[in-house]
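Batch manifest, entry 17 of 40.
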Amino acid sequence: MEPYDYYYYILLPIFFFLIRSLFHKPSGRKLPPGPRGFPILGSLPHLGPNVHESLFHMAKRHGPLITLRLGAISTVVASSPEVAREIIGKNDYAFSERTVPDAIAAQPNPEFTLGWVSGDHAWRNRRRICTTHLFSSHRLDALQHLRYEKVQQLLNHVNKYRNTGKAVDIGKVAFGMSLNLVSSTLFSADIVDPEFESAQEFKEVVSHIMEDGGKPNLSDYFPLLRWFDLQGIRRHIKSSYKRLHEILEEIIEKRLNDRAAGTSIIRNDDFLDVLLDQCQEEGSGFDRQNIKALIVELFVAGSDTTAITIEWAMAELLRKPSVLQKARQEILTVVGTERPVQESDIDTLPYLQAIIKETLRLHPAGPLMLPYRAKTDTEVLGYTIPRGIQVLVNAWAIARDSNYWIEPMEFRPERFTGSTVDYKGLNFELGWSLWWWPRSFRHLVGDFQKGLRRRS
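Output type: structure tokens
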């Protein structure tokens, strides 16, 4: 291809978007208000490195429900509990479709994930498998010893460093613990060594996926430019997905060899065994390749987010020694020093619960919910959100709404003491509440909570 041809294919879509932005007239439908924007780019120049913060400041000027044009993509953004309740509570079916970013589509078999597809028959089957074999009350009881074991490994590691006077990288060891908990749950093996030395590689791989997936990407704002991958995000994230799939392929290969040779007298009966059994069932829709997409999704969702929350909680406690001392005193009073804290103690430690809630409020692992797409024209608070438009819910902004929180930027666990706010996803003023997960995961969270209630 001649250089002039290359420039032609780049400039042609840009010219197309210029003409469209100059002459496109809005429809007669009443869209939410928003900034006027620039030709071609729309409101992209207004977005800083932290998109959720930029959208938060836009909502301050234009209201809790705004319309933006981000390049060629029209987007509606919700930034208040009332609007969020309308979109993902009252009209969740109308907004159940997904806008899949180019970085997510770059992974192998993205159609076999839970968070990025609509609720068709194949998705419901995957959800059923996850619900039965990961989130049921029976599995929760069976895995309680595993959770205790991984936390104890973390504490032993911290104590070892404390005795030698070395600093502890909280993010690294928390990520290693979370990763081992997920890997042990899925295929009965630790993927990080007891000293957490090998955690760094996996932390970097998963972090790359999270970071690349969250970066503003021209390919998402100008779909006709996806082929060029101008920022290199698709190429970069592909290598991270490839590495995770290589690790999983080794584990799957070993398990299949053990099963074929009959070396495993007693089956592990873990989630990998369940998935491999499904692969052998005709018409199940599972095979050796697509089960890796589901496992990778569970890895990313279950490890990095947990580590981020633990790291933020520790940072806030170190910033506020009085809060740390109050939490320590509560544990000493309720549990004492003769035994470690058990899961059954959590209900009797309200201040510790308040610290966790406040951390999740102030530092949500996912400040923007995964992008929705309207299936039909839908009326929300007097405005019409047209079919096919992208919809974002800014959980970070909702958790900082001064209409609901006193000094919303401050870390104050006391705001939750004596409060009826919980983790069940019913409190829309909480940006961290579990409703920020996509519709598919909210079903799984509901199944998880039902299992917990049956246990208590």
